[in-house]
Amino acid sequence: MSTFQELGLNDDLLHAITDLGFTKPSEVQEKAIPILLESETDLVALAQTGTGKTAAFGFPMLEKIDVNSRTTQGLILSPTRELCLQITNEMKQYGKYCKGLNVVAIYGGSSITDQAREVKRGAQIIVATPGRMKDMISRRLVDISKIQYSVLDEADEMLNMGFKEDITDILSHTPDDKNTWLFSATMPREVATIAKKFMYNPQEITVGNKNESTNTVSHEYYLVNARDRYQALKRLSDANPDIFSVVFCRTKRDTQKVAEQLIEDGYSAGALHGDLSQNQRDLVMKSFRNKQIQTLVATDVAARGIDVDDITHVINYQLPDEIETYTHRSGRTGRAGKTGVSMVIVSKSEVRKIKSIERIIKKQFEKKDIPDGSEICEVQLMSLANKIHNTEINHEIDKHLANINTLFEDTDKDELIKKFFSVEFTRFYNYYQKSKNLNVSESSSDRESGRDYKGSSNSTRYFINVGRKDGYDWMKLKDFLKEVLELGRDDVFKVEVKDSFSFFNTENESKEKVLAFFTDFKHEGRFVNVEVSENRGGGGRRDDRRGGSGNRSDRRRGGNDSGNRSDRRGSGDASSKPRRSGDFKSSSDRSRRSDSKSNSSGFSRPRRSRR
Asked: How far apart are CA 337 and CA 567, in angstroms?
């Protein structure tokens, strides 16, 4: 591997590199920097997030621009405010010995007047988000007609976020003879179209393969029942005392609820999602970067642009719909030469997705067990012991030693150690001493074949007295059920909609919850009735079509079967026992039904944001 000196950078940049502690260039830097320094060319670079792309285009741009001129010579477009600010800060660090350098960030959510004033002072380099940049161009607050270098950073992300028209419009105001450097994790058709339209005979470099995970990240999955997902998250956090993590959820609602519950349970956590104001997002990210927040719970969209090198773990609380999104998630850890862990919490119905992800990222997942209470107590105890052993003594305590020694003069060394560590140990021991085993067994035949568990006897099939005549298709009914039942996207499946009734499946462990919820449940003034269907399969089989005959009219009116349903539910199932106060879904079934009945949409009301 080359050194930065061998790449041909000037002394000012090498001085800054030394200050920053960089020792050797990353692969993308080693490949891109010599090309960009030695020739005036367009470049397409495919590399994952966290591989050092900012320096790969930042160093050549800083070397090539004229810092003595106040003309804007370089434009860097990035998908999010967070990434825009981060690139700006890094460019300023790289160019801190380049006298006269002015790098300005342009992004939404802040004063456009202040940003225009900064540009007018003479900004050789502008780093911008597409929306705000287009706005400033239309107001004639910036002039990019003389730029020599344009960079499209995270190009695939920008296009995924709907910025194609903005990018096209912005680049139409730039000179035809400029150099364009496109950096992207993947090369979908939309990115290739942009490259073809605005680039001339670009050179290409690739670091790794498309969607392939880096070697610095290990991948683990934990198999639990869907209802135990939150408890599994807490145990994984407790089993890693020094964890500094991002937890990914699918929806804004789940993100907020998980973050709130973690805070209520005493964890240092924060939420990051699209319903937060820009000021709230900034405060959360500042706290996370300063490690005042140990666990950041985020949606995929909100997490775009997060670039924090010290993240130890990425926890997939729910798997994303797209495998490519998993690659972006796991790329948040294992950065800057450090190692990281990507954990996935899955239910049986999701195990088949692990196989699919393995094929794409070309890495094997290791199946691990959620640690039990005794393991967590031991880990926490030894973590505390190591911290105390390595603590530097503050001699200001010396003047208090006499009083402390008097207090413990009748206590021997072993007893003192036991008392001291019991303060922390007892807290975990009391919480975990009666904790249940969260792990679910997985047969090797199912794992190897990738069979869909949902077609097995592990699921329950239901009849529900709404259908197409009520305005539902399978997707709308699935969304309705998972919202009112507070289930995950994959926890309601085999949804089949008929004219006046429908069928759906859940895993067996959700059966009591489903039947209890739909007791005397009204939606838009009409009773919605759910019963167990005699057919446990799906796909419109004959006995499904017969499933509602006989008493179907009674069912649609709210049913005469409530007594039988009560008998079927029984009273000995674990789900009928009161939940511990630390559990995620701590509301009673009764209170949830009350909330739903008072809501004309039939959906449970989301909890008020605390942030």
From this structure: 59
Contact 132, 106 (CB under 8 A): yes
Strands across the sheet with 74-77, in order? 103-106, 125-128, 74-77, 149-152, 179-184, 43-46, 203-206
- Say how far apart CA 228 and CA 239 lie, in whole Å: 16
What gap in Å lies between CA 430 and CA 98, rounded to an integer? 59
Characterise 174 by phi-psi region: left (phi > 0), alpha (psi -120 to 50), beta (else): beta
Would you list the DSSP string of 537-556? --SS-HHHHHTTTTTHHHHH
73/566 Cα distance (integer angstroms): 74
- Within 8 A by CB and 6+ apart from 376, the residues are 235, 238, 239, 428, 432
**Top-confidence residue, 500 or 150:** 150
As a whole number, the mean pLDDT across the chain is: 80
What residue type is 398 in one-letter code? D
In terms of Cα–Cα distance, which of 161, 185, 226, 190 is closest to 360?
185
pTM of the model: 0.55
In angstroms, the CA 65 to CA 161 distance is: 30
566-610 pLDDT, tens digit per residue, is: 333 333 333 333 333 333 333 333 333 333 333 333 323 233 333
List C-alpha distances in Å: 152 to 45, 118, 180: 10, 22, 8
Other C-beta atoms closer than 10 Å to the C-beta of 161 total: 17
The first and second tokens of residue 156, run together, are: 């695939």
User: Contacts by 22-30 with C-beta closer than 8 Å and gap 24+?
Assistant: 22/55, 25/1, 25/52, 25/55, 26/51, 26/52, 26/55, 26/56, 27/51, 27/207, 28/52, 28/53, 28/56, 28/205, 28/207, 29/55, 29/56, 29/59, 30/1, 30/2
Burial of 605 (0-12, 13-18, 19+ CB in 10 A): exposed
- pLDDT per position as a tens digit, 423-478: 878 888 887 877 788 888 765 334 433 334 334 457 889 999 888 888 888 878 88
Tokens encoding 42? 């367009």
The residue among 550, 500, 508 whose CA lies nearest residue 528 is: 500
**Which helix or strand (DSSP H or E) is residue 133 part of?**
helix 130-138
**Both structure tokens of 305:** 């642009």
What's the Rg (C-alpha) of the chain?
29
Check residue 28 and give left, alpha or beta (phi > 0: left; psi -120 to 50: alpha).
alpha
Location of structure tokens 């699935």: 478
Q: Residue-wise over 43-74: b if at least 16 C-beta within 10 A, else e?
A: bbbbbbbbbbbbbbbbbbbbbebebeeeebbb
pLDDT confidence of residue 501: 87
Phi-psi region of 136 (alpha: psi -120 to 50; beta: other; left: phi over 0): alpha
Q: Are 31 and 204 in contact (CB under 8 A)?
A: no
Using DSSP bridges, classify how beta strands 459-464 and 530-532 pair: parallel, antiparallel or unpaired. antiparallel
d(CA 78, CA 84): 6
Query: What confidence score (pLDDT) does residue 211 get?
Result: 55
Residue with tokens 């960079």: 151
Place of tokens 């800083």: 62
DSSP states of 553-608: HHHHTT-S-HHHHHHHH-S-SGGGSPPPTTSSS-S-HHHHHHHHHHSTTSPPPPPP
